[in-house]
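User: Quick sanity check before I run a bigger batch. Here is a single chain. Can you write out its predicted 3D structure?
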Amino acid sequence: MNAGEWRGRTLGARTVAYDETRPILYALAVGAAASDLDLVFEERLRVLPTFALTLAQWAPDALGAAGAFDITTAVHGGQRLHMVKPLPRSGELHMQARVSDVWDKGRAAVFDVAVESDYFEATWSLFAPGAGGFGGDRGPAAPPRPAAPPGETLTVQTKPDQAALYRLLGDRHPMHIDPEAAEAAGMPRPFMHGLCTLAAITLPLARRIGAHPTDLAALEARFSAPVFPGDPLTVTTWRTAGSTRFEATTGDHPAITRASARFTAPGSS
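Assistant: Done. Predicted structure follows.
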């Protein structure tokens, strides 16, 4: 079975229940402070939209478990999220997942896993070395980097314990906590989840442009290099009509590229 034959395959449905503890833990894991009471205090709680991605992590995991690609070499290449309505502070979310597209990159394939619910739509792009060459479409080109000079630069300081906290939300791959597993994956030490890094950027980004982090309506990014817990990130931004484009680097290495965020609050465009 070649990679292209996975296009359109259903990955099933799942209902995930959670109480207020999980979105609070999530907020702390992606950088919220104890003083951010509307993110960490149940009596004032507003749920970060990117929390939805932890609830839907079962879908890309299911595709790997089904044998579509080698799970030891595949990486999370990109992410899209569109919010339909705010997440509840607690309750149940019913989700359905499918392989929406498979792109042929020659030596690799990119599997797009789409998850839909009444609250959000999300797509994981999974880069699978060795799975390409099946004669399929290469897929759409990446959006170009803005030609205009960047507007602002933010510094986001990641925390030494962020990966250890984030993995409690569902993605417990040992390379994010175990030095031996990280070394086996070709990394010098455990590194952060790409979705944790991306969500950590949205908090200060929202506040810089006058929005609240929970007003995130849409988010898109590509993951280019690992970020290690405790690393500072330099985030370069461009304000465009309706959204904010951004890139993040750690040291001299681009970590997140071709990214954009749209917030619904005034001042977000």
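The mean pLDDT is 94.

User: Great, the batch can go ahead then.
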